[in-house]
Hints:
Strand 1 (48-54), helix 3 (58-69) and strand 2 form a beta-alpha-beta unit. Helix content is 32%, strand content 24%. It is α/β, with parallel strands linked by helices. The chain is globular, with a radius of gyration of 26 Å. The chain binds NADPH dihydro-nicotinamide-adenine-dinucleotide phosphate (NDP). Residues 94, 162, 194-200, 202, 219-220, 224, 246, 281-284, 329 line the site of NADPH dihydro-nicotinamide-adenine-dinucleotide phosphate.
Amino acid sequence: xxxxxxxxxxxxxxxxxxxxxxxxxxxxxxxxxxxxxxxxxxxxxxxxxxxxxxxxxxxxxxxxxxxxxxxxxxxxxxxxxxxxxxxxxxxxxxxxxxxxxxxxxxxxxxxxxxxxxxxxxxxxxxxxxxxxxxxxxxxxxxxxxxxxxxxxxxxxxxxxxxxxxxxxxxxxxxxxxxxxxxxxxxxxxxxxxxxxxxxxxxxxxxxxxxxxxxxxxxxxxxxxxxxxxxxxxxxxxxxxxxxxxxxxxxxxxxxxxxxxxxxxxxxxxxxxxxxxxxxxxxxxxxxxxxxxxxxxxxxxxxxxxxxxxxxxxxxxxxxxxxxxxxxxxxxxxxxxxxxxxxxxxxxxxxxxxxxxxxxxxxxxxxxxxxxxxxxxxxxxxxxxxxxxxxxxxxxxxxxxxxxxxxxxxxxxxxxxxxxxxxxxxxxxxxxxxxxxxxxxxxxxxxxxxxxxxxxxxxxxxxxxxxxxxxxxxxxxxxxxxxxxxxxx
Length: 488
Ligand code: NDP
């Protein structure tokens, strides 16, 4: 009697333990019960992608390379900044095996390598992911909807702003974060750089060859940039560093920045200074908006990793790069984490029963939905072409002023090519290489038509030969599409 009572009690306790485990699994951190990762359910569904990679910087592209090498299909959503923040810098000196390489060149090489193994890159941005069901439900800016068996978050971080009076009003009119984009437009001008980190030092190297003078304003008594970079700043005769200085207000003349109020926080005095440009390098914030707090974040908004893996608080969801790294923030570290995330992802997929057959089955149902059709843009270089194709042309013509070293231009080009295809019958988009047309088209527009291009990229919208609008804003594909629609 006593023995059977113990057996019944033991069975009851085991039953309660199993129930509790399942119940707590369901409640914990928005997590999903292990039993819900049923591979047999997904093979019957359409639009299911084994691995969705959000972001295409070093982390995302390295992850895609490893996923592809594991024989699995991934789709990389390139996001608003295809190939990530390295496209905003000039030379990279600290990538092992490459002595000195342009950021854009390095990222293009990684992209090509990933694509050669079969990685698929889509120029669209993920705007929302519903983690409350599995496969996870993903939505993009262009209205694509699909399911993801796993997600690798590689959305990086966005440069911070100062939030002072006049900053927003003069954004793109003298206030910017991208020195490599705008340096040629500040030839022989005076500019300030705000910040004391590596990015601030790098901006000195990018600006000094062009400007009359560049001054780094550091809010503390020292810079946190690497010593070697600080020493390099000292080697530029037109570069200076001022400590204990903060910008309090930005002033303009209605068109561009002309002055700033600089606060000396040691002497407690404010001084007004004439200035032509302000380059911000005051750190970054993690891009976590599309997560809607479903994944566990730390108090600064960085995704929290489980132990030493790249797994987040949700099974099947991984992260790599600056979205989860407030400390190291190096491209090579992000790439390594992308690789770790890919390995964790493949382990997870095998664990839940993924196989080559399952992969082949899913592929049949989702591939054709992802065509990114583009149209190569016509390029003009001569004044006669400017008149033939733009100023004497009927209908809407958009001129894209670009340069081959301007990261924003490179970022927007695939968007413009996709839109050119969509608007084929309604508008023509033509590209103009600023460096090649300085003495022809650029000069002609300025001197004969009073149209001044002051930074890159610049979009000029003409209708029946008349200039309707000019934009120097960085825009996503859908923002560009909506912008052009206004003129059709
Ligand atoms: P950091 O966070 O390292 O530095 C930000 C700087 O901005 C700090 O000096 C900070 O001051 C200052 N700052 C922040 N807010 C304000 C404000 N409101 N007003 C004035 N100053 C402000 O950012 P970085 O972008 O420079 O670097 C990020 C990471 O990327 C780092 O890990 C860096 O090593 C790496 N990096 C590496 C490069 C390379 O290796 N070539 C190049 C560029 C970046 P304070 O010091 O007082 O906090």
